[in-house]
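Bumping with the actual sequence this time:
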Amino acid sequence: MVIAPDAMAKAALFPVLATQGLMARAQAGSLPEPPGPRSGVDGSGPPLSLILVGDSSAAGVGASHQSEALGGQLAAALSQDYRLTWRLEARTGFTTADMLNHLQAVPGGDYDVAVVALGVNDVTTPTVTLARLIRQRRQLHSLLRQKFGAERVLISGMPPVGRFPLLPNPLRWVLGQQAARFDQALMKAAHADGVEYYPFTVPFDPEKMARDGFHPAPSAYHLWANMLARHIRT
């Protein structure tokens, strides 16, 4: 069995990585989720319904209001072409397992598109193995289709964790390698399920990071939202 370099480094450097991880997690959780609506009906044109699910990035941490966040900017972009009915289900710290539990507990719906922005907390949680994560993601794909009626499920790929300013080395290198490895495996699982996987292609720039060095700033959310909107229009 081939052991991934990041897994080998994690075993060898566990005490250092654990300390760095605790400090980084505390700092990354210093910013709140922004206020603002988490559902709405906007625009004019052909009807389109969308649900966005995810972690703190989907919840808009790093923005001052939901209008500057991923959901708000995605709604603004799509409402230029559609009569958009949208909904946000996201929370800081959520792993894929947390999201599964959450979605099982909330009312379902009937959506044309489900967008998933989730995964960084799976990378940073030591107990989440890749095999377990893939199983959970496939369950999430099914849940979004069955309970939420999603005709299209669109997974937004993993951001460049290995370039987040908040993370010190060697933690930054280890998590960056693990995130890239998980991203490739999740893309394959999505394709196997007939789910769309859109790589995270927002150009990295420290100025597009929030002040915590871990979450996107509104300018990054703008680019991300518009890239997703262009893909949804196709």
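The tokens above came from a reply further down the thread. The mean pLDDT is 93.
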